[in-house]
């Protein structure tokens, strides 16, 4: 009688504690290597030294005219005629700024300049970017002839007298429209924005059309946000040009005091001080008594104070636009 062996029951595997499974890493990652320090070779030391020296010298050349103008504006007018002022006033005085800020029309002219600059920048960016979007589309068959027409205006200009006759015939003399209508579209800014928009991939606009967006909505909600760096640069150029302009006020709106701008009032003040200094008989010092309080100043000191008063608003606006100059164009818009 044969006996068959009976299989012994296999013991069940012992379950490991859950804490060990959780704490045990599933994949072993190689240890991070510390970045190796770059060795300071002779070539690198020479290049860093020369590069730093050149950049510091270039920064000094850029800052010195501004600091010198500020020092002269804060210096006594009679002492500034002697010359030799560097970046620090020799005889500190706020008399030059008192002459400028005590003008009766300075604050109203400042408000008009701000309003003019805001309107000119807004209308120029709106209409120029709209036209640039149309000219950047490949399906628009008339994009090349229209672009050529605008490019020709950069080389040929009718002149000052025809422009004045045009503004007069349009009935815009002594009106606020003479400030923003003639500069509603700039040919140079048009070329810049058109080139920028042409670099946007077609997949971006095509996906918007698939979702049912029209041309206006594609331009406003898709293209315009991607063009913020270009719009910031163009907007800064337009703002600086509009803020510093005074010839348009002299030609078109000199008959209305409420339309006078800050630059025009400062130019009149500078002209009056120079004429008074030339007619005073003291040409050596060329001093002039200007302002309602009869302050004594000189054209060189007054010119520096006027320059600083006119430049401060632009210097305050520039830091807010600087971040858009280095921002990327297509970050997160198209996935490869």
Task: Write a brief caption for the model.
The chain is mostly helical and 336 residues long. It has two domains: 63-105 and 260-324, no CATH class; 111-259, MetI-like (MetI-like fold). Helices cover 60% and strands 2% of the residues.
Commentary on this structure:
With 336 residues, this protein is mostly helical. The chain has two domains: 108 residues, no CATH class; 149 residues, MetI-like fold (Orthogonal Bundle). Helices cover 60% and strands 2% of the residues. It is built from 15 helices and two strands. It has a two-stranded antiparallel sheet. A hairpin with a 4-residue loop joins strand 1 and strand 2. Helix 4 packs across helix 15 and helix 12 packs antiparallel against helix 15. The chain starts with 17 loop residues before the first helix and ends in a 14-residue tail after the last helix. The C terminus is likely disordered.
Keywords:
336 residues, mainly alpha, MetI-like fold, two-stranded antiparallel sheet, 15 helices, 2 strands, disordered C terminus
